[in-house]
Specification:
single chain; 150 residues; alpha+beta; minor pseudopilin epsh fold
Length: 150
């Protein structure tokens, strides 16, 4: 019996990936990471704006509650330049919140203050709209002439 020698391959094949395949995979991963970070930043902006709007609603509720409990006027003042709010009863400051510092938001309001009478109704004749912004996210808090918050 004769055995024929089988020719050996000249090149060896190694399992693995090539440099172009790695570059394509890294490019796709980079694009997906950029899209995910952009969405996460938008979500953070919305959450911070919602939190600051909640602080505005809480300050308005506190002022109304104090006005009813004490039977005298209480006011909420907005400083849009510094993005702060403060609840006052007479000369006393009951609450001060630096929304810009705490939440990183900008604040705009149609009036610089609103007040509640001793019966809990809004004191004054105009509505108030407070807009809290961070990035592309915005939350609006509206106070009616009667003092209702929406």
């Amino acid at each position: 019996m004769s055995t024929t020698a089988r020719p050996r391959p000249l090149t060896r094949v190694y399992p693995g990936t090539t440099l172009p395949e790695l570059l394509v995979a890294l490019t796709v991963a980079g694009i997906l990471a950029a899209l995910a970070l952009r969405g996460a930043a938008r979500w953070v902006d919305e959450a911070r704006a919602r939190g600051a709007a909640g602080d505005v609603r809480s300050a308005l509720a506190l002022a109304r509650r104090v006005a009813v409990l004490r039977g005298e006027r209480a006011a909420v003042r907005f400083d849009t330049a510094r993005a702060t709010l403060a609840v006052h009863r007479g000369r006393d400051t009951l609450l001060a919140r630096a929304l810009g510092h705490l939440h990183g938001v900008r604040l705009s309001a149609t009036r610089e203050s609103t007040a509640y009478a001793g019966d809990g109704l809004g004191y004054g004749a105009a509505n108030l709209r407070v807009v809290v912004r961070r990035g592309a996210a915005a939350e609006t808090v509206t106070v009616s002439r009667l003092g209702r918050v929406r």
